[in-house]
Amino acid sequence: MVGSPKRREIGHGRLAKRGVLAVMPTIEEFPYTVRVVSEITESNGSSSMASVCGASLALMDAGVPVKTAVAGIAMGLVKEGDNFVVLSDILGDEDHLGDMDFKVAGSRDGISALQMDIKIEGITKEIMQVALNQAKGARLHILGVMEQAINAPRGDISEFAPRIHTIKINPDKIKDVIGKGGFCYPCPDRRDRYYHRDRR
């Protein structure tokens, strides 16, 4: 990408993040910062839902203990009068010429993110039910294909990744680690006589 992120990249990134965030481990389970980058080289469909699928696979491959895999699908709509057809996995032309772009992300357990753009005044309860049911079937199909590649997070993070080791120190022994009061250490850098540690 050239230049700063634009409205489209920011909006689609936030939607993809919401889709994946629901299955992320807690800070106690995985005390690492996670950064996922999704490079979209061509967009003739839903780049945000492709990013959800790719992020889910990448996180599991990296050893992040996500609760389950997530996938996304973009649903479309063609409506004329009382007749309508709901489309699955719409292409760019179907998005441009159709009446709805309805993105649904989630796992086998349920939905984690939704976003709807419509060009008509509103949709009926029937259209919503059909779209959600059709999206569920498509999502489960995509998850089945993804599980053929990797069906669970790897047992551990890469041997090349930074590691965090946590130890608990008895509060009475903290002064043995940081010094009395936590300041005025002899400085390891000989150019400065002392360095100070702020305990706040």
From TrEMBL:
Question: In this protein, which residues make up the domain named Exoribonuclease phosphorolytic?
Answer: 3-65
Which keywords does the record carry? Nucleotidyltransferase, RNA-binding, Transferase
| GO annotation (BP), single | mRNA catabolic process
- Its domain of life reads Bacteria
The cellular component terms of Gene Ontology attached to this UniProt record, alphabetical and capped at eight, are: cytosol
The enzyme's E.C. designation: 2.7.7.8
Instruction: Specify whether Nucleotidyltransferase is a keyword of the entry.
Output: yes
For this protein, the record's Gene3D superfamilies field holds: GHMP Kinase, N-terminal domain, K Homology domain, type 1
**Keyword hit for Transferase:** yes
GO molecular-function term, one example from the UniProt record = 3'-5'-RNA exonuclease activity
Q: Which PANTHER family match?
A: POLYRIBONUCLEOTIDE NUCLEOTIDYLTRANSFERASE (PTHR11252), POLYRIBONUCLEOTIDE NUCLEOTIDYLTRANSFERASE 1, MITOCHONDRIAL (PTHR11252:SF0)
The name this protein carries in UniProt is: Polyribonucleotide nucleotidyltransferase
The source organism is: Klebsiella pneumoniae subsp. ozaenae
